[in-house]
Amino acid sequence: MPSRKNHSSWLGRRFVKIAFSQPDDDSTIGTIVTMKIAILAPRHYVDELKGYYSPPDGIILHYFVEESIRKKDLKHVTDDLLGKKFDGYIGLVDWSSLYAAYLNRRIGASSPNPALIARLQDKLLSRQAQSKYTGYRGLAKDTRTFKTLKQYDWPVFVKPRRGSMSYLSNVVNDFDELEQLYGEHQRVNLRKVNQDWIKLYQLIVVPEEVKEGIDGFVAEELLGNGLQVTLDGYVQNRRVGFFGFTKSVFMPNHISFKRFDYPYRFPNKLERRIKRHTKNF
What we know:
Rossmann fold; Dna Ligase, domain 1; 3 domains; three-stranded antiparallel beta sheet; 11 helices; 13 strands; 38% helix
């Protein structure tokens, strides 16, 4: 075996050991001790990543299927994941992203505040935040408050405060229809669907207004006939970066999406305006 000397060095914010061979023994430059990263994601994402993604040298990825995590005792899973001494956790969708943020906070890794993520994942609370910081003036009300409203501009678009895609989303034309579609029976159903979220909220300790959204529905004005787009990007170390716009194309006479077009280009003036509001938010 060739003899080696050990040196320590900083690479970014990561302290690593590099083992160098003696020049007369081996011509290799050295080997960096690997970083272990846990990927938490639904099974179809895990299968796709395993099939098509190769991590950079020095990075070892360990995959954990979200559906399997949800079936187990979350405290025991948490203890097990923390015990494996990962250098970081990455989640790919709403539930796993929130859980990963909590795990990163537990080990002192860079991560957004889990309670803040939970607030922004709530469709009512996120709209209220947008109104405060960006000048957004659209309608956004919890349907439980409609009992106190004598008049309202119908129809409205109703969807769960804590939900994904188009689940339980409908156009509602009047108060009677609202009661029929989104009465107490539907709240009971939503609490059953969101049991995994309730367990995660208990682990993270989220604000009370976030817990209230578990069985809540938000009403908004109908989407117009114009374009609907998503601005994709990130925030890192207080810096806002953008990838680009994705256009959402709806199915004819339906609230569900037909496809997503990326990249989509806006006129420069409108693009700058959207990005400015996003940075402010």
